[in-house]
Amino acid sequence: MQSSNQPVARSDKLNGLRRAFWARAERLACFAMHHALKAKAKDQSADIAQRSALVLAPHADDETLGCGGVIALKRNAGTDVTVAVATDGSASHRHEIWSATTLDALIALRETETLTACKTLGVNTNDVRFLKQPDGDLAGDIAALTTAITTLLHATRPDDVFVCAERDGHPDHTALAQATHLALQDYAGYVRILEYPVWCFDFRSWRVQDMTNTKGFVAGVKDMLNTIRDWSMISVRTQSVLHLKKAALAAHQSQLGTYDPEPQWSGLPDTFTRHFLTKTEIFRLIAREDGNRK
Ligand SMILES: [Zn+2]
């Protein structure tokens, strides 16, 4: 019995080693990309706190992950910041075991977590909006999403618009970025458009499917290199408010696996959140201040 099990055990071990190897290679590629984007970024720390902002997040927690530091800097300076979360958060933990929470309770919980996070960053409750679009299906009605963003633009007249990166790889992130760019095409105001990468720092956003591990990895890295070359980047030093960003992120308990009533819910891994708990935030600059696309 022992001898007949040995080949299976050896093959499991080999597969485990292979998976660990590729997971490590992918994490390293993402950290290398992050460092390369940061290295080419122009420091814009001097004046960013004085510029009003509309922060558009596909999901509750993206606002904190992507630009929590900049939000805190702006609010510390008394600058207006409006945060809008596009989806209702209902798709979270869809395939996991639920012990004590209903779907309605999850939606309410994610709003509460967002309000707590935003309050920690200095944003007033009245300046946090929930668009309540279907989680996981933001692309289902781009026209309605674009209209909602246009309404927010006219209501807030921001100097800066922050939105997740179109290349984030998650369909909701791509849809929100596309709708934002559509809304801004017809917006006459002077505005600077800044994309904050979130899932760009997860290799699943780059790996080409239906290829072998090696070919898919190489193709993904080439795509990353082209992206690094093409993107105009700015950076902002956020070390002085990093403690606020950490506290704000901690408020998103349902997304971190720290929500006590649901001990089985998974959370974002440390290897991923590490990208965001840094001394510098980086953004892709899409448009100049005259509103013309670059
Ligand atoms: Zn998201």
Low-confidence stretches: 289-294
- Return the string of H and E elements: HEEHEHEHEHEHEHHHE
> What is the CATH C level class, in words?
Alpha Beta
| Shape descriptor | globular
Distance between the termini: 67 Å
Small molecules in complex: zinc ion
> Helical percent range?
40-55%
Average pLDDT number: 92
Radius of gyration, CA atoms, in whole angstroms? 20 Å
In total, how many domains does the architecture comprise? 1
Spatial strand sequence of the major β-sheet: 1-7-8-6-5-2-3-4
**What is the assigned CATH homologous superfamily?**
LmbE-like
Question: Strand percentage, roughly?
Answer: 5-15%
The class by helix and strand makeup works out as: alpha/beta
For the sheet with most strands, the description reads: 8 strands, mixed
CATH topology: Rossmann fold
Number of strands: 8
CATH architecture verdict: 3-Layer(aba) Sandwich
Tally of separate helices:
9
